[in-house]
Amino acid sequence: MGDGFFISSDEANELIDHSSHYGAVIFPFINGQELNDSPGLSPGRLVIYFSDWSLDKCRNYPEALKYLEERVKPERDRIVPRNNMAKQRKDLWWKFTGPTVDLYDSVTTFSRVLVASAVSKYHALAFLPSTYIYSNALNVFAFDDYSHFAVLQSSVHSAWALAQGSKLEDRPRYNVSDCLKRFHFLKG
Question: What is the pTM of this model?
Answer without folding.
Answer: 0.84
